[in-house]
Amino acid sequence: MKDPERTPAGDAFAEFSITALRLAGPLTQAGDALAKPSGQTSARWQVLAAANHAPMSVADAARALGLARQGVQRIADLLEADGLITYRDNPTHQRAKLMVLTAAGETALHEIKERQAAWADRLGAELGERRLRQASALMAEIIEVLRERSSAAD
Amino acid sequence: MKDPERTPAGDAFAEFSITALRLAGPLTQAGDALAKPSGQTSARWQVLAAANHAPMSVADAARALGLARQGVQRIADLLEADGLITYRDNPTHQRAKLMVLTAAGETALHEIKERQAAWADRLGAELGERRLRQASALMAEIIEVLRERSSAAD
DNA sequence: TCGATATTGACAACATATTGTCAATATGGC
DNA sequence: GCCATATTGACAATATGTTGTCAATATCGA
Does residue B5 lie within any of the structural domains? Predict the structure, then answer.
């Protein structure tokens, strides 16, 4: 995995990348476990949370979540079919309707939030706020750097 | 996203989780870009790298990569069909054959490693070795904590 | 050796997400 | 107002990954 690796910093970034990708699995599974008692999943929870933050179009939510528009569209249509959100007409855009949580959607989201709060408090206390915030800041920085590089004709 | 959130540390962990999940996408895409010139993807690269580290069964590689056995099996069968690996008989286990890179597999992996080294060196220098190592250590710790919690009847 | 238990690959179903294409609709410069 | 360009949702194809089940095979204690 580290044959032509040269600099220590490059090695550190390679290690970081592998570890970050390994983390995604357990994190998604933990989210699924939190969402499951309310009949939801990590992905559906994320979209519900985005729509609850403010009524927004599918494209808006995709940008907010850093996902492809079409993937979010798929989840949103499932949520609508299950009666957790509705599409409300958008006064400023004929096509891009706004996602709004129904009462059922609000109930589900609230339940998940309760569970997540207990879970996050427990793990946050165990892991330490300072380290978590430093790591979050670094990850946000990396997201930004990768975004710039991929949007440019690199 | 943070309604019933109580402790600062819990909030920090919630933020960390969201950011980590957001990072996975760009990171996978960057890996795909590195692997693409050799006709590979992030996922196939990971399996190639595992098999190159030492001949191992699909189940071994899945454990090493932190993925479900069946997903790795699927990738490995694709790699075999494309002639990048072969299954070698395992003297110690009749069913669990060992993945071994073919010459084509070694060539592809080497090419990707070259590209990745340049990429990681560049970003590693930009982001700082110390912060990257601290974040990696924290992520590894979280993977371990989540693993324990999910394996237990939590 | 025997038998309970775990591991392994095969197979299938499904969830998540990207990429690409298209037509409808906005947007902004002229 | 018009036109080039961008955004948006619809549709389809594909990649990645989990979960569940099953039979074959290992492993290990009695």
Answer: no
Distance from C-alpha of B102 to C-alpha of A1, rounded to nearest angstrom: 17
Nucleotide nearest to A65 (CA to C1'): C17
- The residue of A21, A65, A126, A145 whose CB has the most chain B CBs within 10 angstroms, and thus the best one to mutate to test that interface, is A21
- Residue A100 inside a domain? The answer is yes
For residue B88, name the pLDDT band (cuts at 50, 70, 90). Answer: very high
In a domain, B61, yes or no: yes
Number of structural domains, chain B? 1
Q: List protein-proximal bases of chain D (any atom < 7 A from a CB).
A: 7-13, 15-21, 24-27
Q: How far is CA B107 from CA B31, B61, B85, B113, in A?
A: 17, 20, 11, 10
The whole model's pTM is what? 0.88
Q: CA-to-CA distance for B130 and A9, rounded, in angstroms?
A: 8
Residue A153 in this model has a pLDDT that exceeds 60: no
Which domain range does residue A119 map to?
33-151
